[in-house]
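Key result, reporting period 2: structure in, sequence out.
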């Protein structure tokens, strides 16, 4: 296909995403310039369906070696940019890493579809490169990561500036959990949930538990006993029973505890000793099983 110009490629419309890598190489090598490559990438980002993995790989392999690749990075869009190998992203200087951060924050869909290992490594390297790994983790830094903020390792998260804690009221924590559940019930969220194994589900729960207990004061350094934060049945519907401390759950009123028994039974993350304490509380309310009346 001689002289496969940008104009000819754009004229293909929706069928352009089916071009071969050979044709793309000819396109990229025929009078390459920043403006022509920018036009091609803008066209790719407008496609109504996800690009094939081989197509994204071909685009990256060709564009990466252009002198103006650093300028093109922001034009790739998160779908193509996140197809870059982790080994390549690790080498990004701070300005390119910040460009990648902005793309993911603006369009987090493709980040959420990544394997959990790549998510963790990518966020960890981003936090390091952007200077968030040591010292105080500020509110602005936390918010700047968007959806990636929940993937920050615990060593960084615990450095979150204390003034931010006042903003994270119990109501906002509940809305955060509710937003997560709404996302999980959506088309993208449901797809991500299906792809999680037991280890990934446990890791997600541990992050949720950490957020709830840390911001509500259960894990504050120097506190011998946690504050008396007792959830209602409604709050447990919004969050997750096992994310609360056992003392908080057993401190619920008898009526609230009884209304929550079904939630307790459906929660797969209670540890054996927690189940034992909850059963003990249940017996205190209803009496031992042998004292129940026999059905007629």
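The corresponding designed sequence is given below.
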């Amino acid at each position: 296909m001689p002289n496969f110009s940008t104009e000819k490629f754009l004229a293909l419309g929706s069928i352009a995403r089916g071009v071969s890598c050979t044709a793309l190489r000819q396109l990229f090598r025929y009078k390459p310039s920043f403006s022509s490559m920018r036009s091609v990438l803008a066209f790719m980002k407008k496609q109504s369906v996800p690009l094939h993995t081989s197509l994204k790989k071909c685009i990256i392999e060709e564009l990466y070696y252009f002198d103006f690749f650093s300028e093109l990075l922001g034009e790739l869009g998160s779908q193509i940019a996140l197809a870059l190998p982790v080994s390549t992203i690790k080498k990004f200087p701070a300005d390119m890493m910040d460009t990648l951060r902005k793309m993911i924050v603006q369009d987090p869909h493709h980040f959420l579809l990544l394997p959990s290992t790549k998510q963790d490594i990518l966020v960890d390297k981003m936090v390091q490169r952007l200077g968030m790994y040591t010292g105080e983790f500020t509110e602005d830094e936390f918010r700047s990561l968007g959806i990636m903020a929940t993937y920050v390792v615990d060593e960084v998260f615990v450095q979150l500036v204390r003034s931010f804690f006042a903003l994270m009221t119990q109501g906002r924590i509940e809305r955060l959990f509710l937003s997560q559940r709404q996302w999980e019930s959506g088309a993208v969220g449901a797809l991500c949930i299906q792809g999680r194994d037991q280890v990934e589900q446990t890791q997600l729960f541990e992050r949720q538990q950490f957020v709830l207990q840390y911001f509500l004061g259960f894990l504050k350094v120097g506190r011998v006993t946690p504050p008396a934060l007792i959830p209602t049945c409604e709050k447990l519907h919004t969050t997750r029973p096992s994310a609360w401390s056992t003392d908080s759950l057993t401190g619920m009123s008898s009526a609230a505890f009884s209304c929550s028994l079904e939630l307790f039974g459906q929660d797969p993350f209670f540890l054996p000793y927690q189940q034992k304490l909850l059963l003990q509380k249940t017996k205190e309310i209803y009496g031992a099983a042998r004292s129940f009346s026999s059905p007629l």
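The radius of gyration is 25 Å. Residues 1-84 form one domain. This case is discussed further under Risks and Mitigation.
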